[in-house]
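Exercise 3.2. Students should predict the tertiary structure of the chain below and write it as structure tokens, then compare their answer with the key that follows.

Predict this chain's 3D structure.
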Amino acid sequence: MQAHTWQQSSFRGEGNACLQASADGVDVRLRESAEPAVELVATPGRVAGFLAAVRRGDLPAHGR
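Answer key:
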């Protein structure tokens, strides 16, 4: 199992929970610091597409 170098978001809500990210050139991994065993793994292109959709406001609001 490969060890990943995690970068931590500078934004934190309540408590110490924050988003952490790791990239190895093939995959991008995202996890919540409060639940580090659970990782979302995607290609860089998929993550870029997701972030572009967020910036454009193309994602449905939570709870709809």
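Discussion points: Strands lie at 7-8, 19-23, 28-32, 35-42. The longest helix spans residues 44-56.
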